[in-house]
Write a structure and sequence with these properties.
Length: 537
Amino acid sequence: MELDIVELSRLQFAMTAMYHFLFVPLTLGLSVLVAIMETVYVMTNRPIWRQMTKFWGSLFGINFVLGVATGITMEFQFGMNWSYYSHYMGDIFGAPLAIEGLMAFFLEATFVGLFFFGWDKLSKRAHLTVTWLVALGSNLSALWILIANGWMQNPVGAEFNPMTMRMEMTSFFEVMFNEVAQAKFVHTVSAGYVTAAVFVLGVSAWYLLKGRHTELARRSISVAASFGLASAVSVVVLGDESGYSATHSQKMKLAAIEAMWHTQPAPASFTLVGFPNREARETHYAIHVPWAMGLIGTRSLTTEIPGIAELVENAEARIRSGIIAYDALTQIRELRGDAPADVVATFEEHSGDLGFAFLLRRYVDDPRDATDKQIAIASNDTVPQVWPLFWAFRFMVALGFGFIATMTYFFFMASFKGMRFPRPALRLAVIMIPAPWIAAELGWFVAEFGRQPWTVDGVLPTAMSVSHLSVSDLLLTLAGFVTLYTVLFVIEMGLMLKYIRKGPYMDVAETDAWTERHTHRLRTHDGKGPFAETPAE
């Protein structure tokens, strides 16, 4: 990879985003799990559930603080590293980010304080309300961020203003209810729920293996398994919905994920495994599942999914149309309000392809001067790297089905086998703790890497979006971010492991006394078995 400002800016943002997303899924899921545990406490008044809420809540708090610290930096990067993007798209992209900060983040941050310091100052129901508001704030924060990101994937509800040279919002409703944004939100949130469920399951399994805090561990496994099973199934189902939306909003990304080099007769087959070769435009040793891709991608047996070769041809046609739009735009800008009606009409007819003309800016200053060879090169640039997307997607899907299997097993053992878990299964649960983070990072890689070469799909190329910085500036800041984020990650891991080893340390005496009484009630009844009949008087 050539170290120019575009690639370095991409690398820097990718690094900070990937680091930040190490904290986000656990925050999303653990906030809801903690709220569920406290709900059970309020309903049953059993101290063990209060202790569970406080213990898992303390781990949530550590993760939340580190997530905030790593997330703030990303918003500053839009101005520092992506200044032209911010200028070009700020009217649309900035709105959901501002709402996220003003409504969701402040809501979450305010009630997090009440959650930790309000146990002895609020009533049970008031504190439970606070806990659910923390969970709501976490998920609302994700909603607005994913609305912003979804617009980059599918830019609806906006149009280009030739006078200001900016994209301007025409419908907030369309931006907010963008099908890609909504599909990404439910899919991402469900992935966060799976992450938290696997985390709680794994830590609880570790306690059982060590013979520590067994009552808390068993109840935590029961909650995590049921919550995790529903979430894992949701991830797969909602991921399928994301694939369906990509069929008509991001056709090139879908074709690259499937290594579909040419359009197949409907219904297209799904490539289970294989080795994509971009130069030869074929996938070696491919194993196909007939009809599967057609059903997943189009929900029909008759609709075709376009292949990469055909999409490249379409991109070339759109580049040539974009050159016409660029020429008309240049005349409109020169003449200001005096542009002839036919020029304005020409621009409006071809304005949807203006972004494709901008792809030529990597090779020529004025797209109108581009040669046929440069146009062909630019059209081929619309194809992202296929093999990383192909394999990242398949590893992610494999992990998703693995989570379903794991949660199904533990749900069955917790519900029908008296919570008697074999030690090999407990060890597997511990080993699986990192797996949902791997799956989540792979998912974001597929979503963002698959959009290249666009910052905003079909509208603004990544190469045009960056600030005018020097390579040395970017290398210096990249090294600084890597160092800082690594330190924060080490702190996060150190604190989490410290408190996991420490175990539940709050309300110990009250919980132990209740557990002893509860155990006694289960084991004896008038000195006999738990189901012995009461002697007649």
